[in-house]
């Protein structure tokens, strides 16, 4: 199997995403259960019970996964059938993925194993607004350095996350606030050509939300991830799945107008939550910034009936308490006016796991999640794809 052969998970890597072969789909289900079981592992009978596959089909798949180095025996344990069952586990170091967070002034790059654990992390200044050549050169340098840390095991691909709006399916950037020169640039394909690896591109907020969704029980749970850094956006996980919308433009949370005669926003309109929030941060009025964020969070909860709100991004991480307090207060007010205190109370607010690495870790998940049964458009570009 070559370093870019994703066929074991059913991805052709070609645009238009053929339906994954049944073999690939079932393999992804098995891999997903192996990943979820962690070190403890899972027996073939348990795999059969959870996938609905026959024990023979499971044995065939697990034999192939072992031959490819992706699964290994993890001992034996007593089973109800009498003889002890062999337990299998994922071999996390068998493959790696790269996650990139292209922020306006900084690049964070992580190398993760198959379990999504970071093996190596690099951070370097980046002038995103300076344009493509500088960004591609910096990225290539960092990815080369990370690949050296993979210990010879194949790197499956690169997940790249940057500010939106962008088209996730074509990998083309749209008009990013503060960086209009990128409008129409095919960043995914340019990165794939430069790196020689398959690349998947998504918004920073979506990547983080996808990473955070790995904590959810399968096919359940909804949350909004609000990212306040150099801009403000949201990643939405609804019913267990990342919601991108038909044009992959969902989550432009920061540009909802909350004050129609308010200050001019970088997007060209007035009174956007992002403009109010960033202006308050700039003048050091964090409670006001948190109130603006809270208004948006309450709107989101009203609109989508989500289970929880997670906060992240550099500005929040620098001063978590005022933001947690402000958003909690807004959602408590909302619950009070809706009479919801008897029905579970206000929607809870928490800091997103992962801190400053939430977006880069989630970007690696853009590569990994589809291999483990999560639906996605798959990887594009790179040699042989
Ligand atoms: Zn705006």
Describe what this molecule looks like in 3D.
With 385 residues, the protein is an alpha/beta fold. It has 3 domains: 7-90, Winged helix-like DNA-binding domain superfamily/Winged helix DNA-binding domain (Arc Repressor Mutant, subunit A); 94-208 and 358-372, 2-Layer Sandwich (Nucleotidyltransferase, domain 5), CATH 3.30.420; 220-352, ATPase, nucleotide binding domain (Nucleotidyltransferase, domain 5, 2-Layer Sandwich), CATH 3.30.420. 35% of the residues lie in helices and 20% in strands. It has helices at residues 22-37, 44-51, 55-67, 132-147, 187-195, 204-213, 273-282, 286-304, 314-318, 320-338, 358-368, and strands at 42-43, 71-77, 85-90, 96-102, 106-113, 118-125, 155-162, 166-167, 172-173, 199-203, 223-228, 232-238, 241-242, 308-312, 349-351. The strands form 4 sheets. A 5-stranded mixed β-sheet has the order 6-5-4-7-10. The protein has a 5-stranded mixed β-sheet with strand order 13-12-11-14-15, with helices on both faces. The protein has a 3-stranded antiparallel β-sheet with strand order 1-3-2. Helix 2 (44-51) packs across helix 3. It is globular and about 70 Å long. The two termini are 14 Å apart. Zinc ion binds at residues 255, 265, 267, 269, 272, 274-275. Zinc ion binds next to helix 7.
CATH class of the largest domain: Alpha Beta
State the assembly state of the protein chains. single chain
Number of strands: 15
Order of helices and strands: HEHHEEEEEHEEEHEHEEEHHEHHEH
Radius of gyration equals 22 Å
Structural class: alpha/beta
- CATH homologous superfamily caption of the largest domain: ATPase, nucleotide binding domain
Name the strands of the widest sheet in spatial order: 6-5-4-7-10
Q: What is the helical fraction, as a range of percent?
A: 25-40%
State the shape: globular
The CATH level-2 architecture of the largest domain is identified as: 2-Layer Sandwich
Main sheet overview: 5 strands, mixed
Distance between the termini: 14 Å
| Bound heterogens, unique | zinc ion
Which consecutive residue ranges, at least 5 long each, have pLDDT under 50? 1-22, 375-385
| % residues in beta strands | 15-25%
Compute the average pLDDT.
88
Protein name: ROK family transcriptional regulator
Family: Belongs to the ROK (NagC/XylR) family.
Pfam family, one: ROK
InterPro entries: ATPase_NBD (IPR043129), ROK (IPR000600), ROK_cs (IPR049874), WH-like_DNA-bd_sf (IPR036388), WH_DNA-bd_sf (IPR036390)
